Amino acid sequence: MSTPSRKELLPSNMKGGACHVANKKRGVALSKSIKEGTKMVHKEAENVFFIRSFLKGNININAYAKMTGNLYHVYTMLESVLDENEHLLFGTHQPEALNRSDRLLDDWRYLSGRVSSTAYPEASPATVDYVERLEKIANSSEAHLLIAHAYTRYMGDLSGGQILARCARKALNLPETGEGGSFYEFPGICPKNFKNVYRSKLDELPYEHEMLVSEANVAFALNIRIFEEIDVYNGVEGAIVRPLEFALSAAKKWKEDKEAGKRKNSGPACPFGFTSKTNMTRCPVMGSKNMNGVRTMSKARCPWPFILLHDPKRRFQDWQSWLVLAGAYGFAVSLITSK
């Protein structure tokens, strides 16, 4: 299969500089699976002190230089192994548009004041762990999992990274010519449009979702450790770098959280058998009919907690309970008055 050209991935349907993106309805897509499956760890990354401070414009040039230096090593390895495994990536491999390593090196040299062409940043311990993870995957029988790392990094750069870019330029008074902040610049492309087309290419990949979502969680956790290192470097009180096991176990934790979520939403056992969204479609009184005439439920729980008393937390919160109570009361009154 030939790799689509950059033009195929990047339709330039723009008017007056604005991005016009065509929305296409899909079923369960890989891009959606990754987005949904990484929500928790994504939120955790945003709550690292370094990132929270960054978003508030509280960042010093040394910390920013350290970040760009570390990411230089990450992207150098990522882009190298992506090139080597291009045959597994299909239309998602777009080095001309996405490669960041050269820009990161230029930024680091500018920010650190080391303009010599022989100057290179030193990789931190957490960065070395990240690089070794990429290398290990690339040399395994599951090299397609590199897609999870590419998606996590590049889509992040095109999304939240654009906000961080504005914060960095303002906080550090970076020149308008781009020095020091070129990492976040993607010349000639519309980020919103590019992301949509990139996701559509991702959704066409013939890979099982769960493994890629698991590895995307690991990718986020590896990035978190790099941010935590910067907090330690900055002397943030209480800052620590969690062990590598934290990152590697992120895949397992995601699966556990997923199962816990299913159990949480399953609701209490009901003698009528209404214990899941599927079974609840048989309920004669709850829910509403969809286009196919099947009743659907918003939550899986017994519709009669008052009568059966096996759902004490709900009790009189359901209108059905009040309806039955009123009916029983009316029936009792009618019996009494009829005598």
From TrEMBL:
What Pfam families does the entry give?
Answer: Heme_oxygenase
Q: Which organism is it from?
A: Triparma strigata
The record lists the lineage as:
Eukaryota, Sar, Stramenopiles, Ochrophyta, Bolidophyceae
The GO terms this record gives for MF are: heme binding; heme oxygenase (decyclizing) activity; metal ion binding
Kindly give the InterPro entries that the UniProt entry links to this protein: Haem_Oase, Haem_Oase-like, Haem_Oase-like_multi-hlx, Haem_oxygenase_CS
Which SUPFAM superfamilies is this protein grouped with?
Heme oxygenase-like
Reaction catalysis annotation = heme b + 3 reduced [NADPH--hemoprotein reductase] + 3 O2 = biliverdin IXalpha + CO + Fe(2+) + 3 oxidized [NADPH--hemoprotein reductase] + 3 H2O + H(+)
PANTHER family the record matches: HEME OXYGENASE (PTHR10720)
Q: Which UniProt keywords apply?
A: Heme, Iron, Metal-binding, Oxidoreductase
Enzyme Commission no = 1.14.14.18
**Top-level taxon:** Eukaryota
What is the name of this protein? heme oxygenase (biliverdin-producing)
Query: What GO biological process, any one, is recorded here?
Result: response to oxidative stress
Family per UniProt? Belongs to the heme oxygenase family.
Asked if the record carries the keyword Iron, the reply is yes
